[in-house]
Recover the amino acids of this structure.
């Protein structure tokens, strides 16, 4: 699996993709793992982190809400927020009996 999907790291060794695989490798006692070193802009790194975790990532909703642009997250495919449904409240008809007493 690791050769097909290596860890993605920065030149400084920061793991951008594969943190959980890295933890599993440590637990398995592996001393070396395949990596791809990328030298991306901060914005590209942020985009990759979100896109890499869309399917199975765990999210800190406070950080996402306060430190990320919601529209950008939506553009990248992350839709964690429920969109309120635009529905009109049902108005009671004049001739409809009262629910509590039937009058």
């Amino acid at each position: 699996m690791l050769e097909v999907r290596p860890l993605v790291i920065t030149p400084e060794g920061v793991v951008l993709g594969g943190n959980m695989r890295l933890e599993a490798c440590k637990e398995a006692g592996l001393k070396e793992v395949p990596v791809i070193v990328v030298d991306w802009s901060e914005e590209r790194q942020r985009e990759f982190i979100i896109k890499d975790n869309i399917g199975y990532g765990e999210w800190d909703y406070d950080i996402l809400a306060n430190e990320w642009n919601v529209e950008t997250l939506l553009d990248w495919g992350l839709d964690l927020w429920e969109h309120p449904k635009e529905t009109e409240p049902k108005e009671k008809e004049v001739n409809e009996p009262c629910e509590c007493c039937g009058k």
